[in-house]
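Fold sample X.
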Amino acid sequence: MTSSSIQSRSQAREEAERGMADTGDERADPAAGDETVAPVPTDTLAGNAAEQDEPTTTGDADKTAYAPLAQWAIRAGGRPQPAPGSGELQTPADPWPEPIQGLVPPLGQPPFEAAELLRLAVPEAVPPKPRRRLGAILAAVAVALLMGAAGVLVALWPEKDAGPVAAPTGAPTEKVATKPAETTAPPATPAGPKPRETPLSSNFDVDPICAGEAYWPMQPKRTGRAPHPVLVYGDQGNGDRLPFTMFKTWFLKGKAKEAVWSPQQDPAKIQMVACVDRVSAGAKLRTCTYKAPAEPGTGTMYRASYRLHVYETATGRRVLDTRLAGTVKTCPYALSVPTDKKLYMEVSEEDLVAALGKLVEG
């Protein structure tokens, strides 16, 4: 305690003693002598202050924070506490703070329960916003843009057979006659042999007519009286397709026979081509060995059968189609042995003349 407070307390005691002497208080009795009033112990003051902390129901006395100090002043001989309701009571300079809104019930209402108070004190949890929402929106916008771009490309892409464009709604429309699409079919290829533009120039160039592919309109037709010159051409058993020599038929028979059967006759006078084609092979017959002037080598000869079909050179018309067996047992003439080392029996000249005789000389 400071010296100023002790001095103020002493002055208060003196004023109280003088007041008691004037009013005839027991403390002014001269028999009591000059007994001085002992200072109030600190413990007593603290106890009184503690007692004043307890709340009372005396109206305005509870609204001031200075009630303990006022009671102490009365005991010390100071001015008494103003009466309740007087205008001397003043509102403290530091009033109690306002209660938290929502935690105190309205005036005249019962206090909140503990659970309800906890609900009011703790705000409700706000559900977190999904983080992927923005990403999903951006992805959807990107897909929409891509689809729109694709639609624009499809719309702008030129179409070969695009139909009429529809007019907008409300606009006058004009009827346009649509023409069905014309399909251009490739020209049909005529079946059968085709004519050649130049005459037959060589007796070694008649393979197209044997294959049924061509004919020569400028050649003489097979009409009139016999004989009708023929060229025998085809497989001779050694793998080569050449004109047959027909040596026995025309060489010793004079010029008339030579002009009908010879492989060296004038090509421009040939009326028919007799084609010889091997169609099957049979059993092994013998071994053929070739020496000079042919290229040396050895091959195996087999039995075979042939197709003989005859065509008119001027029209490509087939006039004969038959089958002959190979009967020549001697090894066929060859300048070299075939790569597969296989040789075949030839059709004999006699069998050819027998099959063609009526067409040529009949």
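Fold sample Y, listed below.
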Amino acid sequence: MKTNQLATVIRLAHPQFWLLTIGSGLIAIHLTLVWKAENTNLFGTSFLSWAAVSFIVWEKRDNLSLESDILSSFLGLAFIWIALIRSASMNSFGGFLYASPFIFGLGLALIASGFQGLKQYIGELITLLFLSIPKLLPEWAIYKITLLTAKSSAFILWYIGFDVTLTGINIYLPNGSVEVLRGCSGVELISQMLGLAILFLLVFPQSWQYKVLVPIVAATVGFMMNAGRVALMTVIVAKDNMNAFDYWHSGNGSLLFSIISVLIFGLFCWFLIGHNESKNQDSKLS
């Protein structure tokens, strides 16, 4: 009995335990709010981003400097408290759900390591910031991306043999049509992939050529997967199968495309790591 009590006291005395508890609670709160908002795309993006950030922080936990001061801790608590109050008072869920992960992450980083230690979490904070990019981009930029998505989806349909017509952001097939709106622009998926690309570059440092290539590949994978999803939904609408359309548009089907995008990008990263290891071995032998 005494041994268990002593272990509990030791565990509570360690700041890592409290930081882990607070961080887990904030992640659970955010994912719950997104789930209640029935925003499947954001839920998938948030889940993957939180999981990646948590894994990276956990991997380097022994090398983190956990020294903060009163001002930093107070400011961090203020950020978290304001975000929680805002969450509790929300009658509807909007852009705040996209920004809250960065606010939570910044607040927790200030509590853990203060202003001086923020540089330890730059990559993780940027990754969480990418979740809010869809709400920070101006409307003209969103429209340009949406238009490009519509063109790409129409090209995919034309290439595989469909009689497709494109007018602006409207894709027409003989038996139906879809209008590519902001939610199907692919900005959310592209932002997610760019955030993962930054995490990869932090964990596995690359030469400057690959520092440029990796984000390009990540954004391209996200964009093309979303264009393929829009093309699929156009075919489904033409076949008048609205149940399937709802599944791929706002149901679990949209989440599946996010998972496939991450897997494709993961394979690229795996290949890149193997290529670098092979090159390093060859240079040692020579």
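Sample Y note: The longest helix spans residues 252-285.
Also: Strands lie at 165-167, 170-173, 176-179.
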